[in-house]
Task: inverse folding
């Protein structure tokens, strides 16, 4: 049977992030719980080797930037750490374009042929220690990712029709059709699968940035910024970071940073800010919009139909949470009654069409976890399936709770207007 400790290693649900399950199977995930102690055969530390490689090839890495396992709630998650106090404005990392995989020569440009980049990555993986990129590839754990992009139709059904709907497998389908002569993704060589998964979970526009892509995402606690020029990419601190604190980057921001898109690509939903945006799936509403939108901030503060001026700050160091909180009440009060009625109608209809309630999901979740504990190590396929189901259940619980929270705010606003009109 899988032990409780092993299960905790596989189910990485962070306090900072609402993570989906990250490990591909029990053994892979168990190994991922000790990233910072991962050694080469000669006893050297893989992260130290990567830093030395970056420096040998014209890059710079601040000695105060390290890699460790962070305690996120009850679980450990690999990420960057400040080994000493670091002042705002300090350079953490400089990467010349020559050591950013995927770029053309010493420029920031990437080939128009995306397949070319991915196939080249797979070739370097196959080369092993003989590859120039080996120190970077040695820390690539992409194959242990269980992102929804890998899910089959039965797993998508676990989302109960919630976004990202059926779009999750688009990336693997595109890769199979355009780069692999139609061979199903699951049947591709290990190195080819690793190449695409690395592109999905680590790359920035098909640019693979050593050290940088080992840092975790958090738009609400973002404390770095990145600047690109003709020479390379420079990462600096955007705030004072104390010894032992985690160093965060942003995977994406603005209106692209929707909860469903983050879940589809990376398999998690961050704690805040959570931006929900999706097209409603029926045309019965007469509210004048085909899109549902709301933003959740700390303290269960909800912005209904958030303005572009708020969304554009997500993923940037200019995001000021106090400013957001102060503007939310005024913004919500400025919405028309028709907008609020439309939001309430569509949201309540959505909740009513879902197969299970949050309470029922909690019961299903616990049973699925219990069943997972009873599986043996040689049931790799069943373990992966169960872990993906758990991820889907966590996601739909989060979605339902957030939708209910937004509906509560909307209905309170409508009730206040009704009371005011009766005075």
Result:
């Amino acid at each position: 049977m899988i032990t409780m400790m092993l299960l905790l290693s596989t189910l990485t649900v962070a306090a900072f992030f609402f993570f989906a399950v990250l490990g591909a199977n029990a053994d892979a995930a168990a190994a991922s719980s000790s990233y910072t102690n991962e050694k080469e055969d000669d006893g050297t530390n893989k992260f130290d080797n990567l830093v030395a490689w970056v420096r040998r090839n014209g890059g710079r890495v601040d000695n105060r930037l390290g890699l460790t396992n962070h305690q996120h709630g009850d679980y450990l998650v690999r990420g960057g750490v400040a080994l000493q106090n670091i002042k705002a404005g300090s350079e953490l990392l400089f990467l010349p374009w020559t050591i950013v995989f995927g770029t053309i020569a010493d420029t920031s440009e990437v080939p128009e042929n995306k397949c070319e980049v991915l196939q080249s990555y797979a070739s370097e993986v196959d080369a092993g220690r003989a590859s120039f990129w080996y120190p970077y590839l040695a820390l690539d754990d992409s194959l242990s990712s269980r992102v929804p992009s890998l899910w089959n139709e039965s797993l998508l059904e676990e989302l109960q029709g919630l976004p990202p709907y059926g779009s999750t497998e688009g990336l693997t389908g595109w890769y199979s059709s355009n780069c692999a002569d139609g061979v199903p993704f699951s049947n591709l060589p290990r190195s080819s699968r690793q190449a695409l998964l690395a592109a999905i979970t680590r790359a920035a526009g098909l640019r693979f940035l050593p050290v940088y892509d080992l840092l975790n995402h958090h738009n609400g606690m973002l404390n770095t910024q990145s600047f690109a020029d003709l020479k390379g990419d420079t990462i600096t601190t955007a705030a004072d970071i104390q010894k032992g604190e985690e160093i965060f980057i942003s995977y994406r921001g603005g209106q692209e940073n929707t909860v469903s898109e983050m879940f589809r690509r990376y398999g998690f939903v961050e704690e805040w800010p959570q931006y929900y945006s999706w097209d409603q799936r029926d045309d019965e509403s007469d509210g004048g919009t085909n899109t549902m939108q709301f933003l959740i901030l700390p303290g269960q503060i909800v912005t209904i139909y958030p303005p572009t001026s708020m969304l554009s700050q997500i993923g940037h160091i200019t995001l000021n949470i106090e400013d957001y909180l102060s503007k939310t009440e005024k913004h919500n009060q400025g919405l028309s009654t028709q907008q609020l009625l439309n939001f309430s109608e569509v949201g309540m209809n959505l909740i009513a069409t879902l197969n299970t309630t949050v309470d029922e999901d909690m019961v299903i979740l616990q049973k699925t976890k219990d069943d997972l504990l009873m599986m043996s190590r040689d049931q790799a396929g069943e373990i992966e399936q169960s872990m993906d189901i758990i991820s889907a259940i966590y996601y739909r619980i989060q979605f339902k709770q957030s939708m209910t929270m937004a509906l509560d705010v909307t209905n309170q606003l409508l009730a206040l207007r009704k009371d005011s009109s009766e005075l």
In short: Residues 1-35 have pLDDT under 50 and may be disordered. The radius of gyration is 23 Å.
